[in-house]
Design a protein that fits this description.
Largest sheet: 6 strands, mixed
Number of domains: 4
Strand content: 25-35%
Number of strands: 26
Bound molecules: adenosine monophosphate, magnesium ion
CATH topology of the largest domain: Molybdenum Cofactor Biosythetic Enzyme, Chain A
Distance between the termini: 26 Å
Helix content: 10-25%
CATH class of the largest domain: Alpha Beta
CATH architecture of the largest domain: 3-Layer(aba) Sandwich
Structural class: alpha/beta
Oligomer: single chain
Shape: elongated
Amino acid sequence: MPPSDQNDTDEGHGHAAEELLPLRQVQDMVLSRTSHLETVEVPIEEALGCFLAEPVTAPADIPPFANSAMDGYAVRSSDTGEGGTELSVRGVLPAGSPPPDEPIGPGEAIQIMTGAVMPPGADAVAIVERTERLGAGRVRILGAVSPGANVRSPGSDFKAGERGLSEGDRIGPGQVAVLASFGLATAAVVRRPRVGVFSTGDELVGPGAPLKPGQIRDSNRQMLLAALSRDGFDPVDLGTAPDTEEAVESVLGEATKRCDAVLSSGGVSRGEFDLVKVVLSRLAAEKNGEAFEIGVSIRPAKPLMLAFLPRSGGGPAVACFGLPGNPVSSLVSYNVVALPGLAKMAGNPKRLPRSLAAITSEDLRPSRDGRLNLVRVEGAFGADGRLLVRPAGGQQSHQLSGTLSANCLAMVPPGEPIRAGSPVEVIPIGPLL
Ligand code: AMP
Ligand code: MG
């Protein structure tokens, strides 16, 4: 596919009278109807990617005692001088040993390891590289050592009572380490949203079974489950439903029992068998929920069904995202519409999606019908540190091949093409490094 093919041709060109909503407005509809889930206490090893529900303060000074930053000799700095000094070595102090009771006196040193408590009387550490071990328990310190040199003072990382982590902080390896250094086994985080995923379509077949004429493999369900895992949510596989109202309703019934949100794919455009929108509209009316059949002014991923259905057993409404069936549309819709809502539920204080400034190395064409063209692009940082993007491949909405190297969506508004070498705003949808 030539890289200049940036217009999706199989998604239709819109109905003349159809009102399309700007993406931002659709995101606002989602964000105004979602809020973060309840707080749960989880083992810190399981908190990766979660958002803290409460601030965490240091229970004591970290480190708790003055200790050596280097392997060497604990000395009285006043004993040392430019010409070098000979001291008698009183013993060895490994990390984890208690300090000696007796302070080190004039002319004395203690061999000390990194992390060992500073012995009383010593105020500095001469690093082993700047010493010479002599016989008979003596050492030569090869230069002057200034007071406090190579000593980590108590509380030099965190002072007792100081805030270490804040509400809304995302738990990464560094946060896990800080929690562990505070002696905590668990953390209070916002619960990860449990998100159901199902595909709809009579034509869909899973792996293994041979394809009969007219059938294709279901790829959206696995794609969306993978996206949810990657983004730190708790995915629930709800299978594939045929195009009947009963089947779709039964899966949604299951979802409203078990899930905080549900992603379906297919069945939301204008075909005769597009039943997800029919069922979601009916369920919303019957159960006093809300349903919105939306045309989003983006390309791809125009058709969208949003519904907020009461949860069986109470609690916040279950957010239902009826994503379009074309695989690329489904992926784009997930990233720009569903992800912001799910991230909010998960306690992410940042509004998603975030965009970045990039430079395009090829012309980017606008959509011909006035929608925001979300061109799948491959971005990499150039030698000058700028993010350079170029179209990732075929841009039609069934062409998964065009998503393989795509890590961003370039936002190309209606109007003139964005010329090669010009700035363009992009939404990252995959790793940039
Ligand atoms: P629909 O929105 O249901 O009309 O589907 C639009 C297009 O996407 C059709 O070509 C479907 O065959 C295809 N499609 C729908 N669901 C899936 C899926 N789960 N995996 C792969 N392709 C799909
Ligand atoms: Mg379908």
